[in-house]
Amino acid sequence: MNVIAYVILVIAWIFIIFGMITIYSLKNLYTRILTAATIDTVASFLVLFALIFVSWRIEYGFRLVLLIVFLVITNPISSHVNIRSAYLIGIPLKQSEVTTNE
Amino acid sequence: MTLIKLFLLITLFILVIAMILSFIRLIFSKTLWDKILMLNLMSAKVVLFIAVYAIYLEKLVLLDIAITYGIIGFLTMTLLSKFIMAGSRQK
Fold first, then answer.
1. Over the Cα atoms of chain A, what is R_g?
2. Which of A58, B14, B31, B48 gives a 20 to 30 Å CA spacing to B59?
């Protein structure tokens, strides 16, 4: 069981590192929120999924599955609320597109 | 130290470095929604840190603390965004 955990953990490291790179490299606000939230959701899912294989017991696995379900449901919801409040009162979409093309 | 403990330690170090980088980005960002995004990333990283640390120490109580912290982080982000949206409409 540990071999599966090693492979999934290495993939999760790559996702976390790319998430940190996208925060610093992208200029537009909306693309930054989209990519950061997506990559962060996948990274947290992979790390918690690897932890199930590391601790191969039922009482750990139940709580980790609960945490995975909670994070996968609520992380896109919070990023959606953030984007919605930015779109309704904040930066219009066309201006940010124009500023990134320059 | 077995090999899986070493892998968990490297994961902990990467999570700490990611938290520090997103905190630096939180300080030097201009708009309000950037700061909320960075807070969201930091809270998710903290949940992951507590879960990995619970498996590293083999203590079951820390996983319950991780679930609680996830709920509190989600409520913080959602209510802050709703508050910003509603407060601006009244002006």
1. 17
2. B14
- State pTM to two decimals: 0.88
Range of the domain at B24: 3-89
Q: Position A102: which residue type?
A: E
Q: Is the dihedral of CA A60, A62, A65, A69 positive or negative?
A: negative
pLDDT at A67 over 50: yes
Which of B34, B18, B16, B17 lies closest to B26 in space, CA to CA? B34
pLDDT digits (tens, 9 = 90+) for B16-26: 999 999 999 99
- The domain locations on chain A are 2-101
Q: Which residues of chain A does B82 touch, with a Cβ-Cβ cutoff of 8 Å? A: 81, 85
Q: What is the pLDDT of residues A12-30, one digit of tens each?
A: 999 999 999 998 888 888 8
Whether the Cβ atoms of residue B64 and residue A63 lie closer than 8 Å to each other: yes
- Taking alpha carbons only, the member of A95, A96, A102 closest to residue A32 is A96
The two three-digit tokens of residue A60, written as one number: 């750990």
Long-range contacts, stretch B18-21, CB < 8 angstroms, 24+ apart: B18/A16, B18/A19, B18/A20, B18/B45, B19/B45, B19/B46, B19/B49, B21/A20, B21/A23, B21/A24
Nearest chain B residue to A12 by CA: give it. B11
Please give the tally of structural domains in chain B. Answer: 1
